[in-house]
Design brief:
By secondary structure, this protein is α/β, with parallel strands linked by helices. It is built from 11 helices and 11 strands.
Length: 273
Protein backbone atom coordinates (compact mmCIF):
# COMPACT_ATOMS: atom_id res chain seq x y z
CA UNK A 1 0.00 0.00 0.00
CA UNK A 2 1.13 3.53 -0.81
CA UNK A 3 0.13 6.88 0.70
CA UNK A 4 -1.16 9.79 -1.38
CA UNK A 5 -2.70 13.20 -0.83
CA UNK A 6 -5.91 14.69 -2.21
CA UNK A 7 -5.37 18.30 -3.31
CA UNK A 8 -8.26 19.41 -1.05
CA UNK A 9 -5.59 19.82 1.65
CA UNK A 10 -4.54 23.12 0.06
CA UNK A 11 -8.03 24.61 -0.41
CA UNK A 12 -8.10 26.45 2.92
CA UNK A 13 -4.73 28.02 2.07
CA UNK A 14 -6.13 29.75 -1.04
CA UNK A 15 -3.35 28.39 -3.23
CA UNK A 16 -3.23 27.06 -6.78
CA UNK A 17 -2.99 23.50 -8.04
CA UNK A 18 0.67 24.06 -8.93
CA UNK A 19 1.41 25.30 -5.41
CA UNK A 20 -0.49 22.35 -3.98
CA UNK A 21 1.52 19.70 -5.80
CA UNK A 22 4.79 21.48 -4.96
CA UNK A 23 3.88 21.47 -1.26
CA UNK A 24 2.74 17.82 -1.44
CA UNK A 25 6.13 16.85 -2.89
CA UNK A 26 7.98 18.88 -0.25
CA UNK A 27 6.03 17.09 2.48
CA UNK A 28 7.20 13.71 1.15
CA UNK A 29 4.12 12.44 -0.66
CA UNK A 30 4.58 10.36 -3.83
CA UNK A 31 0.98 10.37 -5.04
CA UNK A 32 -1.62 13.13 -5.43
CA UNK A 33 -5.26 13.25 -6.51
CA UNK A 34 -6.10 16.29 -8.68
CA UNK A 35 -9.66 17.62 -8.97
CA UNK A 36 -10.80 18.53 -12.48
CA UNK A 37 -13.56 20.71 -13.87
CA UNK A 38 -15.11 21.81 -17.13
CA UNK A 39 -14.56 25.34 -18.36
CA UNK A 40 -12.69 27.89 -16.28
CA UNK A 41 -12.98 28.92 -12.66
CA UNK A 42 -11.81 32.53 -12.26
CA UNK A 43 -10.69 31.85 -8.67
CA UNK A 44 -8.55 28.95 -9.89
CA UNK A 45 -7.17 31.04 -12.75
CA UNK A 46 -6.19 33.67 -10.20
CA UNK A 47 -4.17 31.08 -8.29
CA UNK A 48 -6.45 30.82 -5.26
CA UNK A 49 -8.06 27.42 -5.86
CA UNK A 50 -6.67 23.95 -6.51
CA UNK A 51 -8.78 22.61 -9.39
CA UNK A 52 -7.50 22.21 -12.93
CA UNK A 53 -9.56 22.73 -16.07
CA UNK A 54 -9.94 19.89 -18.54
CA UNK A 55 -9.92 22.57 -21.23
CA UNK A 56 -6.20 22.99 -20.57
CA UNK A 57 -3.56 20.55 -21.77
CA UNK A 58 -3.36 17.46 -19.51
CA UNK A 59 0.14 16.72 -20.76
CA UNK A 60 1.31 19.99 -19.23
CA UNK A 61 -0.06 18.82 -15.88
CA UNK A 62 1.71 15.50 -16.39
CA UNK A 63 4.97 17.40 -17.00
CA UNK A 64 4.50 19.29 -13.71
CA UNK A 65 3.92 16.02 -11.84
CA UNK A 66 6.89 14.35 -13.51
CA UNK A 67 9.16 17.26 -12.57
CA UNK A 68 8.17 16.78 -8.92
CA UNK A 69 8.38 12.97 -9.15
CA UNK A 70 4.70 12.69 -8.29
CA UNK A 71 2.18 10.23 -9.66
CA UNK A 72 -1.60 10.78 -9.86
CA UNK A 73 -3.37 8.07 -7.87
CA UNK A 74 -6.74 9.17 -9.25
CA UNK A 75 -8.65 12.07 -10.77
CA UNK A 76 -11.48 13.48 -8.64
CA UNK A 77 -14.52 14.01 -10.89
CA UNK A 78 -17.63 13.85 -8.73
CA UNK A 79 -20.82 14.30 -10.71
CA UNK A 80 -24.56 13.53 -10.34
CA UNK A 81 -25.23 10.10 -11.84
CA UNK A 82 -28.96 10.83 -11.66
CA UNK A 83 -28.43 13.65 -14.17
CA UNK A 84 -26.93 11.92 -17.21
CA UNK A 85 -26.87 15.18 -19.20
CA UNK A 86 -24.23 16.33 -16.68
CA UNK A 87 -22.48 13.18 -15.51
CA UNK A 88 -22.00 11.32 -18.80
CA UNK A 89 -20.08 14.06 -20.68
CA UNK A 90 -18.20 15.10 -17.54
CA UNK A 91 -17.09 11.60 -16.54
CA UNK A 92 -16.23 10.48 -20.06
CA UNK A 93 -14.06 13.53 -20.50
CA UNK A 94 -12.47 12.97 -17.09
CA UNK A 95 -11.61 9.42 -18.17
CA UNK A 96 -9.82 10.69 -21.26
CA UNK A 97 -8.06 13.32 -19.15
CA UNK A 98 -6.99 10.66 -16.63
CA UNK A 99 -5.57 8.57 -19.45
CA UNK A 100 -3.48 11.51 -20.70
CA UNK A 101 -2.19 12.52 -17.28
CA UNK A 102 -1.44 8.93 -16.23
CA UNK A 103 -4.06 8.39 -13.51
CA UNK A 104 -5.52 4.85 -13.35
CA UNK A 105 -8.72 5.85 -11.52
CA UNK A 106 -11.53 8.42 -11.76
CA UNK A 107 -13.54 8.91 -8.56
CA UNK A 108 -17.22 9.86 -8.38
CA UNK A 109 -20.39 9.46 -6.34
CA UNK A 110 -24.11 9.49 -7.17
CA UNK A 111 -24.69 13.17 -6.49
CA UNK A 112 -27.90 14.78 -5.27
CA UNK A 113 -31.23 13.12 -6.10
CA UNK A 114 -33.80 15.52 -7.58
CA UNK A 115 -36.86 15.90 -5.36
CA UNK A 116 -39.25 14.70 -8.06
CA UNK A 117 -37.38 11.43 -8.66
CA UNK A 118 -38.40 8.15 -7.02
CA UNK A 119 -35.80 5.62 -5.85
CA UNK A 120 -36.73 3.23 -8.67
CA UNK A 121 -36.31 6.01 -11.21
CA UNK A 122 -33.02 7.02 -9.62
CA UNK A 123 -31.53 3.55 -9.98
CA UNK A 124 -32.78 3.19 -13.56
CA UNK A 125 -31.20 6.50 -14.53
CA UNK A 126 -27.97 5.70 -12.71
CA UNK A 127 -27.79 2.37 -14.54
CA UNK A 128 -28.04 4.24 -17.85
CA UNK A 129 -25.37 6.79 -16.85
CA UNK A 130 -22.97 4.14 -15.61
CA UNK A 131 -23.48 2.03 -18.75
CA UNK A 132 -22.63 4.98 -20.97
CA UNK A 133 -19.57 5.90 -18.92
CA UNK A 134 -18.29 2.31 -18.76
CA UNK A 135 -18.06 2.12 -22.54
CA UNK A 136 -15.48 4.91 -22.48
CA UNK A 137 -13.77 3.57 -19.34
CA UNK A 138 -13.23 0.17 -20.93
CA UNK A 139 -11.83 1.67 -24.13
CA UNK A 140 -9.28 3.69 -22.18
CA UNK A 141 -8.60 1.13 -19.45
CA UNK A 142 -9.50 3.57 -16.68
CA UNK A 143 -11.33 2.40 -13.56
CA UNK A 144 -14.18 4.47 -12.11
CA UNK A 145 -14.44 4.26 -8.33
CA UNK A 146 -17.79 4.77 -6.60
CA UNK A 147 -17.34 6.80 -3.42
CA UNK A 148 -19.63 6.93 -0.37
CA UNK A 149 -20.80 10.53 -0.38
CA UNK A 150 -24.58 10.83 -0.71
CA UNK A 151 -27.78 9.25 0.58
CA UNK A 152 -27.53 5.94 -1.32
CA UNK A 153 -23.78 5.38 -1.18
CA UNK A 154 -23.42 5.80 2.60
CA UNK A 155 -25.74 2.83 3.27
CA UNK A 156 -24.38 -0.67 2.83
CA UNK A 157 -27.44 -2.14 1.09
CA UNK A 158 -27.86 0.66 -1.43
CA UNK A 159 -24.10 0.99 -1.98
CA UNK A 160 -24.03 -2.68 -2.98
CA UNK A 161 -27.13 -2.10 -5.13
CA UNK A 162 -25.34 0.74 -6.93
CA UNK A 163 -22.24 -1.41 -7.39
CA UNK A 164 -24.43 -4.10 -8.98
CA UNK A 165 -25.73 -1.66 -11.63
CA UNK A 166 -22.83 -2.64 -13.88
CA UNK A 167 -20.74 -5.78 -14.30
CA UNK A 168 -18.00 -3.86 -16.09
CA UNK A 169 -14.48 -4.59 -14.84
CA UNK A 170 -13.99 -0.81 -14.75
CA UNK A 171 -16.78 -0.16 -12.22
CA UNK A 172 -15.10 -0.37 -8.80
CA UNK A 173 -15.00 1.21 -5.33
CA UNK A 174 -13.26 4.32 -4.01
CA UNK A 175 -13.93 3.91 -0.29
CA UNK A 176 -14.06 7.00 1.91
CA UNK A 177 -13.56 6.10 5.56
CA UNK A 178 -14.85 9.44 6.84
CA UNK A 179 -17.93 9.82 4.67
CA UNK A 180 -19.27 6.35 5.41
CA UNK A 181 -18.63 6.84 9.13
CA UNK A 182 -20.51 10.16 9.14
CA UNK A 183 -23.44 8.61 7.27
CA UNK A 184 -24.09 6.65 10.45
CA UNK A 185 -26.36 4.06 8.82
CA UNK A 186 -24.19 0.94 8.96
CA UNK A 187 -20.98 -0.30 10.54
CA UNK A 188 -18.15 1.27 8.50
CA UNK A 189 -15.73 -1.63 9.02
CA UNK A 190 -18.15 -4.42 8.17
CA UNK A 191 -19.21 -2.41 5.11
CA UNK A 192 -15.60 -1.88 3.98
CA UNK A 193 -15.00 -5.61 4.40
CA UNK A 194 -18.03 -6.30 2.17
CA UNK A 195 -16.68 -4.26 -0.76
CA UNK A 196 -12.89 -4.47 -0.27
CA UNK A 197 -12.42 -6.99 -3.09
CA UNK A 198 -13.69 -4.31 -5.49
CA UNK A 199 -11.51 -1.54 -4.07
CA UNK A 200 -9.44 0.51 -6.55
CA UNK A 201 -8.62 3.55 -4.37
CA UNK A 202 -9.25 4.70 -0.80
CA UNK A 203 -9.77 8.14 0.68
CA UNK A 204 -8.05 8.11 4.06
CA UNK A 205 -10.28 10.58 5.86
CA UNK A 206 -10.46 10.81 9.64
CA UNK A 207 -13.27 12.57 11.50
CA UNK A 208 -12.67 14.67 14.59
CA UNK A 209 -14.49 13.82 17.81
CA UNK A 210 -16.29 17.17 17.64
CA UNK A 211 -17.54 16.59 14.09
CA UNK A 212 -18.53 13.04 14.95
CA UNK A 213 -20.64 14.24 17.86
CA UNK A 214 -22.35 17.00 15.88
CA UNK A 215 -22.69 15.51 12.40
CA UNK A 216 -22.84 11.69 12.51
CA UNK A 217 -26.14 10.49 11.12
CA UNK A 218 -27.02 14.04 10.06
CA UNK A 219 -24.82 14.37 6.94
CA UNK A 220 -23.67 12.05 4.16
CA UNK A 221 -20.11 13.26 3.85
CA UNK A 222 -17.67 16.08 4.35
CA UNK A 223 -15.14 17.79 2.11
CA UNK A 224 -12.14 17.08 4.33
CA UNK A 225 -11.39 15.47 7.66
CA UNK A 226 -8.84 15.99 10.42
CA UNK A 227 -5.35 14.50 10.45
CA UNK A 228 -5.35 10.71 10.24
CA UNK A 229 -4.90 9.36 13.75
CA UNK A 230 -6.43 12.40 15.44
CA UNK A 231 -10.05 11.34 15.05
CA UNK A 232 -12.50 8.49 15.49
CA UNK A 233 -11.52 6.19 12.60
CA UNK A 234 -9.91 2.95 13.80
CA UNK A 235 -6.99 2.89 11.36
CA UNK A 236 -5.39 -0.39 12.52
CA UNK A 237 -8.74 -2.06 11.88
CA UNK A 238 -8.99 -0.45 8.43
CA UNK A 239 -5.46 -1.61 7.52
CA UNK A 240 -6.19 -5.15 8.73
CA UNK A 241 -9.25 -5.33 6.45
CA UNK A 242 -7.26 -4.03 3.47
CA UNK A 243 -4.45 -6.53 4.07
CA UNK A 244 -6.93 -9.38 4.41
CA UNK A 245 -8.23 -8.52 0.93
CA UNK A 246 -4.72 -8.01 -0.51
CA UNK A 247 -5.30 -4.35 -1.33
CA UNK A 248 -2.15 -2.89 -2.87
CA UNK A 249 -3.42 0.54 -3.96
CA UNK A 250 -3.17 4.06 -2.55
CA UNK A 251 -4.46 5.43 0.75
CA UNK A 252 -5.19 8.99 -0.36
CA UNK A 253 -5.30 11.37 2.61
CA UNK A 254 -8.18 13.87 2.65
CA UNK A 255 -7.47 16.51 5.26
CA UNK A 256 -7.87 20.27 5.56
CA UNK A 257 -4.42 21.81 6.00
CA UNK A 258 -0.75 21.20 5.14
CA UNK A 259 -0.02 20.68 8.85
CA UNK A 260 -2.63 17.91 8.98
CA UNK A 261 -1.10 16.42 5.84
CA UNK A 262 2.27 16.19 7.61
CA UNK A 263 0.82 14.40 10.63
CA UNK A 264 -1.34 12.11 8.47
CA UNK A 265 1.68 10.95 6.48
CA UNK A 266 3.75 10.27 9.61
CA UNK A 267 0.89 8.39 11.27
CA UNK A 268 0.05 6.19 8.28
CA UNK A 269 3.72 5.45 7.52
CA UNK A 270 4.26 4.24 11.08
CA UNK A 271 1.07 2.18 10.96
CA UNK A 272 2.00 0.51 7.67
CA UNK A 273 5.42 -0.46 9.05
Amino acid sequence: MEIGLNLEFIRSSDKSFRAGIEIAAELGYKYVEPCVGLGYDLIALGGYYHTVSMDDDPLEVKEWLDELRLKPSAISAHSPLMRPEVSVPYLTRAIRYASDVGAPVVTTDEGVKPDWMSEDQAFDIMRYSIHQVMQTAERYGIVVGLEPHRNYSVRKDTFLKMLALSDSPCWKVNWDTGNFYLGGQDDPYESLDAVADELCHLHAKDISIQQSESDRGEVTGTAVGCACGDGVVEWPRVIDILRKHNYDGVLCVECGTPEQAVRSLEYLQNLLK
